[in-house]
Amino acid sequence: MKNVWLITGCSTGFGLALAKELLENGYRVAVTARNIDQVRDLADAYPETAIALTLDVTIPSQIKEAVDSTIARYGQIDVLVNNAGIGYFAAIEESEDEEVRRMFEINVFGLARMTQEVLPYMRKQKSGHILNIASIGGLRSFPAVGFYNATKYAVDGLSESLYKEVSPLGIKVTIIAPSGFRTDWAGRSAKNSAISIEDYAATAGKNKGDIRGYSGNQPGDPVKAAKAMILVTETENPPLRLLLGKAALKGARIKLDELKHDFDTWADVTEGADFN
Fold first, then answer.
1. Ranges of the chain with pLDDT below 50
2. Prediction pTM value
3. Is 153 a catalytic residue?
4. Active-site annotation holder among 46, 74, 121, 148
5. CATH number of 4-246
């Protein structure tokens, strides 16, 4: 029998593409969404290998129910994909507290709760793989998405620590860091702030317009991303970080150069801060 996957956020984007690719290739999949009607047809098409579950990752009881239902149906969870997430467009000063906190609840705390709920089963199995969907925006920051960047930096940091904790237990962790893909992230899934400050028009305003403008025309192919994620889980030594998309690789290399420049330029001051 092929691996059992539990995927959050399957109504659109990466979650939907991944669920379809897995089911078409005989994997067993727990397909989840806040509105189960959005994924019921997909599960009905594969009655032997799919289960549709209601899951809002901001509701702890639904997280527990989803994990319990997956275990009851399949007896194990081999791969957890923490995919559920939202975006938000605003300069830092324009950002609304309620929207920022909602995004953190979904992108960070929901991901963490899902992981905590699944880990006991993976520890018992002494196996498993956790894929956390971050972003190139979790390695490199951009205007207009500062708080979104903050959530993805948090995912990256949490995942790296998790990797160091669970690797000796037989559990693998991979951070998926895509650039622009043809998902709904820059469309319906991301809100704009109701506040607009003219001084940020040339920075945050411009980048927001650029991102919104190419929504639906991004170079990234979600189906190819899904195939890459499956490949990672079937690799003996998967990477801790998997970049997806040419822009992600280019952006990560730029960030490496920026870090090296600052570290090397200020090395004497850095080392001089220690006691002699």
1. none
2. 0.94
3. no
4. 148
5. 3.40.50.720
